[in-house]
Amino acid sequence: MEQDTIRILAFEVRDDEKDIFKKAAGDLAAEVTLLPDILNLDTVDQCAGYAGVTTLGMSRISPEVLDRLKELGVKYLSTRTIGYNHIDVNYAKKIGIHILNAEYAPESVADFTIMLMLLVLRKYKPAVYRQNVNDYSLNGLRGRTLKSMTVGVVGTGQIGQTVIRSLSGFGCRILAYNRTPRQELEEYAEFVSLEELYTRSDVITFHLPLTESTKYMVNRETLSHMKDGVILINTSRGELMDRKTLIHGIESLKIGALGLDVFEDERSIYHESRINDIIANRDMAYLRQFPNVAMTQHMAFYTESAIEEMVDCGIRGIVSMHRDGTWKKEL
Ligand code: NAD
């Protein structure tokens, strides 16, 4: 395998990643150039002369971008994210570009997921508004405890199973759905079909990748099987839930509360400052006004430890593929 110094171009680099990139490049003897830009058809030509490219999740790696990367000699593309729905992985495989994704400790997203549950159950959003305007009344702020609820966890991969283990400390009943049930979790959760999870859960949290089969898994039809007043939590990808269904569910009171770290069509909104725009996304703005809807800007991953692991993984994966022809997170 090749032993020369590999040149890597890093896109979407935030200030808080720069020192970590420099350290990883030094440790791995790689030459890394850092750019704030996203990778798309307008920026792809900057990849000339680089064998490896790394991005975050706002870049759009379409077949056209992949074709151009191939022409420019790029062999490896790593995303410093767990999710990879922004990359046409099948097309990349077809033309021979290796795609790698990141892994990092699941606690960052799992903790955030449980925080969103508690936040909506304890009506934190309206409580904070009232505090800020000298209104200390309790009317309408009565909450519920997790212990009194049945929580359904859809998807028991790295994050889903961490949510289950953490939730077990709260004393709630936990239902779980995965394509293949996991024996090691059976002491914490009862594995049931997705249909049964939908009908029995008071709170449902989703931990699946966005694929053709998971897109809009929360839709008018599936929502109709859920309990009246169901609480939905999404820290995976916005497109798992049809936003029109979410609006209908909140307006009709079918949905009791929403905790959303991700939102359909969030690209080019989240992780940007849109402070000078009147409105960034009409449906997002409409949903945001409800006291029982808590939204955050795709930040469940955003902890000190996760950022270090994401950057390190992004560089290390490319270097490992270049030198040894293998990496544990090749897609
Ligand atoms: P994972 O790969 O460990 O687990 C995914 C689980 O989904 C697996 O158990 C898999 O069997 C299951 N699955 C896949 N396709 C399915 C389908 N069609 N039907 C049913 N089950 C299916 O992934 P993870 O580390 O747990 O991450 C889950 C998702 O969380 C990621 O794909 C990503 O989109 C999202 N995420 C969000 C953030 C954030 O900051 N909000 C950060 C990291 C990851």
From TrEMBL:
GO terms for molecular function: D-lactate dehydrogenase (NAD+) activity; NAD binding. Residues 9-321 form the D-isomer specific 2-hydroxyacid dehydrogenase catalytic domain. Gene3D superfamilies: NAD(P)-binding Rossmann-like Domain. The keyword Acetylation does not apply. Keywords: NAD, Oxidoreductase. It comes from the Bacteria. PROSITE patterns: D_2_HYDROXYACID_DH_1, D_2_HYDROXYACID_DH_2, D_2_HYDROXYACID_DH_3. Belongs to the D-isomer specific 2-hydroxyacid dehydrogenase family. This is D-lactate dehydrogenase. It comes from Faecalicatena orotica.
